[in-house]
Design a protein that fits this description.
The complex is a heterodimer of chains A (about 230) and B (about 210). Chain A is of the alpha+beta class and about 230 residues long. Helix content of chain A is about 15%, strand content about 40%. In chain A, the strands form four sheets. In chain A, strands 1, 10, 11, 12, 13, 14, 15, 18 and 19 form a nine-stranded mixed sheet that branches. A six-stranded mixed sheet of chain A has the order 4-3-2-9-17-16, with helices on one face. In chain A, strand 3 (about 75) and strand 4 (about 80) form a beta hairpin. Classes of the chains: A alpha+beta (about 230), B alpha+beta (about 210). Chains A and B meet through helix 3 and strand 16 of A and strand 1, strand 2, strand 3, strand 4 and strand 5 of B.
Chain lengths: ~230, ~210
């Protein structure tokens, strides 16, 4: 069915499904579906995904924890894979990316981490997205999930949702989840909103927790795999 | 015995963390802890030697030299050659913050958070929890290329969790706001019955 992801769930997708797979250490270990994809079209031309530690939001890093300058990195631009996220070590080993993404908690070895990760705005209004969806489901918020960046699979639980009928939100539903293949889902994005919001939180990796934000505008996915859906 | 390091860096982080947890009207914890830690990384002939030490061991150049030697010796047990790339280095200005959370005493924060927690109540809400966390860190960094940086960054924020129950069905709602712009709970508290906090609570109840 067609599914609209709200900015919170879209942001979770950008961070968990794409961002982690773009981390240079996972690429180095062979545990990323994005290995060998630099320069390839891996998603809809409407999709640009960025990680920007220089953005003054909750994941802001004035300089990374190896002293490298932090700068905006386009992981995907207009559907094309552009860049991995790197430390000094992974940059030397893998290349094809930008250093300045190395962070560590106090007293810990810094490793490749995200910071402020988001899907850039498109040009569609939420009303246009609803109308174009016509019949489907609006998924709101995030309640956890799981990702296998190596196999390229994900499953995210929304907080709740609304059935969309005739371009309007109708019945509220709960226990809804979105699952699928990361690359297939990137290709299935047919509309991107212009209402991007960023959400602060914390990301855990390698036993370390760092502050981050993730975000997106509303996104329309065609033929998404939606499960659960208990009517309220 | 390894030769001179190919690269080294030293990062010292001094910080304080304040956390408050309020669960169904009861203050479960409210307090501040302090830390001062340093990481010394040295790239020897092959791989990394890393020391994690108390920050007060980072002082004079003499102390740096001793720690670097110690980490260099540790690197001798590695057996895979690691390369690092020389990278551009500069620091962005840290933005000015509004109200510094460290200047607001813990008792006042607890009072505000108790009000936020009560405001999350309502019809069908059977459980509420508010968590506040604040972390202020001073970071000092130096490396073998002669780069040296120092900055201070304070992050704070809160989360509200509410559980609703109706007819045997239970649903959880969760909202949060964290920032590097200064203490934000005052702004939320000032708008308890209107504006952004009302919208946040409406979201919470809708989810419940």
């Amino acid at each position: 069915m067609h599914a609209i992801l709200d900015p919170e769930l879209g942001g979770v997708f950008a961070h968990e499904a794409v961002g982690h797979a773009a981390e240079g250490d996972l690429v180095k270990e062979g545990n990323s579906v994005l290995i060998g994809k630099i320069g390839e079209i891996i998603g809809s031309p409407q999709i640009t995904i960025v990680d920007d530690p220089s953005l003054v939001e909750f994941g802001f890093c004035p300089v990374d924890d190896e002293g490298s300058a932090t700068t905006r990195t386009e992981i995907i631009r207009a559907g094309q894979m552009k860049s991995y996220l790197h430390s000094k070590e992974t940059m030397a080993r893998i290349g094809d990316g930008t250093p300045g993404h190395c962070r560590g908690m106090a007293g810990e070895m810094p490793i490749v981490r995200m910071s402020n990760t988001f899907i850039e705005n498109g040009d569609a209004s939420f009303e246009e997205i609803l109308e174009s969806c016509r019949n489907g489901i609006l998924l709101k918020g995030s309640r956890g999930g799981q990702v296998d960046p190596g196999r390229g699979m994900f499953q995210f639980n929304a907080e709740y949702g609304y059935i969309i009928e005739g371009g309007e939100c109708t019945t509220m539903v709960r226990d809804v989840s979105l699952s699928g293949e990361i690359l297939k889902t990137l290709h299935s994005v047919s509309m991107v909103g212009k209402d991007r919001t960023l959400h602060p939180g914390y990301c855990g990796k390698g036993g370390q927790t760092v502050p981050v934000t993730d975000g997106a505008p509303h996104l329309l996915l065609e033929d998404a795999i939606v499960g659960g859906c208990d009517v309220c | 015995m390894p030769s001179d390091p190919r690269y080294y860096d030293i990062r010292r982080v001094t910080g304080e963390v304040t956390q408050v947890d309020i669960d169904n009207g009861k203050v479960e914890q409210a307090g501040t802890s302090f830390y001062d830690k340093a990481t010394v990384r040295v790239l020897g002939d092959l791989g990394w030697g890393v020391l994690s030490v108390s920050g007060d061991r980072i002082g004079s150049e003499h102390l740096h030299h001793n720690l670097i030697s110690e980490a260099l010796q540790a690197s001798a047990i590695t057996n895979e050659r690691v390369e690092v790339m020389a990278t551009p280095s500069r620091i962005h200005q840290v933005p000015k913050i509004g109200e510094d959370p460290r200047k607001v005493d813990l008792e006042e924060k607890v009072r505000i958070l108790q009000d936020l927690e009560k405001a999350a109540g309502g019809e069908s809400i059977v459980s509420r929890r508010v968590t506040y966390i604040e972390k202020a860190e001073q970071v000092f960094f130096t490396d073998s290329s002669g780069h040296e940086y120092q900055y201070e960054l304070c992050r704070c924020g809160f989360s509200v969790l509410a559980v609703a129950s109706r007819g045997g069905v239970v649903q959880m709602g969760y909202e949060r706001d964290h920032t590097i712009r200064g203490l934000n709970i005052m702004t939320w508290h000032g708008n308890l019955r209107s504006g952004p906090y009302l919208s946040l609570m409406q979201n919470l109840r809708r989810e419940g």
